From TrEMBL:
Designated name of the protein: NADP-dependent oxidoreductase domain-containing protein
SUPFAM superfamilies found in the cross-reference section: NAD(P)-linked oxidoreductase (SSF51430)
Transmembrane segments: none
NADP-dependent oxidoreductase domain sequence ranges: 39-269
Record site: Lowers pKa of active site Tyr: K78
Recorded family membership: Belongs to the aldo/keto reductase family.
Active site residues according to the UniProt entry: Y53
PANTHER family: 2,5-DIKETO-D-GLUCONIC ACID REDUCTASE (PTHR43827), NADP-DEPENDENT OXIDOREDUCTASE DOMAIN-CONTAINING PROTEIN (PTHR43827:SF3)
Keywords annotated in UniProt: NADP, Oxidoreductase
One Gene Ontology term of the molecular function aspect: oxidoreductase activity, acting on the CH-OH group of donors, NAD or NADP as acceptor
Binding-site positions, substrate: H108
Amino acid sequence: MPRTIRLSDGKQIPALAWGNGSSGLLASGEMASSLGAIVLRAGITHIDTAQGYHTEAETGESLKASGLSRGDVWITTKETKTTPEDVKRSVEESIARLGSIPDLLLIHNPFVPEHGKIGEFWTYLEALVHDGTLKGCSLGFSNFRPKDIEEVMAVATIKPVCHQLEYHPYVLTHLEPVLALQEKYGIVTEAYGPLTPILRHPGGPLKPVLEKISQRLGVDAGTVLLLWTMQKGAVAVTTSTKPDNIKKLATLNSMEGLSQEDMEEIERVGKTVHFRHYKEHMTKDFPSPDLPDGK
Ligand SMILES: NC(=O)c1ccc[n+]([C@@H]2O[C@H](COP(=O)([O-])OP(=O)(O)OC[C@H]3O[C@@H](n4cnc5c(N)ncnc54)[C@H](OP(=O)(O)O)[C@@H]3O)[C@@H](O)[C@H]2O)c1
């Protein structure tokens, strides 16, 4: 059984997601489709896609090829760019490409709506839930700064359940105000880029900590980071282009967790550094902390 996290609307979201928005997969639709089926058959039952990745149709194909029923799979997609008049059409086109209504629809970033109109945009999505276009679909957002979250909360009658953002130990200090709001409003984190401390910022102060824990547990450092992410109560949105790695990722569902001491040490050491890989949204009007990048 996949690990799940309970959302504020009562649904259980699988805590491990495979994204088809990373560069290796975007290069080839066929690869996104065939790997997606391998992912689902391996027991990772959550696929993360987006209009902007152009992999929604492949997500639907993966589901068909896997032989799994729709109810056994969680699909997250994201509204990437549209005008207010076009929201309904754009969502309907996503549904047609996916072959079903997604389980979760996110606003991909705060610049998808026109400036100053995030709250208004949210109400358009709510209207689509109410008129049945998005029947049963949960709503959320991605790459939102504190002021963007507050704009939604000021108008929301359907509460956002998830916030997808770059999340790993090296962004924790910067994210403090964002995470405080999520706690206040019961919004679950979906963590993309969770392997950044080993892939995009290797050799930082977490290296010896991850090595020590991974040696003790007999797993690799990436596995330790993904376990840490899920034990923090976040959905780990990772990916792999290699069937063997996909099978390894699926074993996370049944793996024993980290100790409290491991969890605290990773967090404490991670918070001494600030490093963000995906800079395009969360840095504008949201200053980074005055910390070294730890290299
Ligand atoms: N909302 C947004 O704006 C946004 C932005 C970025 C990403 N995303 C979503 O998040 C997904 C994942 O993003 P990401 O690429 O940043 O994730 P990531 O988990 O940080 O990195 C994934 C990479 O890690 C490698 N990997 C997998 N397991 C590993 C392990 N145990 N040890 C070492 N390396 C391992 C994979 O390589 P191999 O292929 O070699 O296995 C893969 O290339 C995307 O596909 C997309 O769906 C969303």
